[in-house]
Write a structure and sequence with these properties.
Helix Hairpins; 11% strand; 2 strands; two-stranded antiparallel sheet
Length: 198
Amino acid sequence: MAKVKLTKNELKKQKDSLKRFTRYLPTLQLKKQQLQMVIRQVEIQIEEKRVEIAKYEESLSDWISVFGEEMGIGDIIRIKEIEKDIGNIAGVDIPIFRKLEFEPIEYDLFIMPLWVDRGIVTLKELAALNAEIEVLLEQKQLLDDELRTTNQRVNLFEKVKIPEAKDVIRKIGIYLGDQQTAAVVRGKMAKGKVVKVS
């Protein structure tokens, strides 16, 4: 802590700072709570998507051995782009998954086996779920970073700035009180000397 001037101006400055800190702290605490709540919601969404993926993979297990055939199904499904929007949670810009677009690819229905149509639909759904999980993980990372910063600010105000300002105000108050008492005593002593002289 820097050396503090023991003046009325410094006292006013410190009181204004304390008022500002105590007014800003509840906002930070509210932001912290909101971020924690949203992070928990994102974690739940990620878990739900993973459960969906597990269900899809389980439904595929019946004919997964057919995937062993050299059909080139990877050439039939190609991702064109992941469409995202930008949302804002507690002042943090986060990506929001909209949809996954695939390139339209033609294939010969006479060469490909019948299961390929259902397999393509399922694989597209799995790819969309995986893309959504990636976006949710990106959201979580951004929100975690903001929560860490907000936590640091809350701790700074609660544990450093507010106690520091209170301590400085107390010290200045004591000093100014002592100065005022000393001035009154000097005044009385001077008055007493004036009365003795006259």
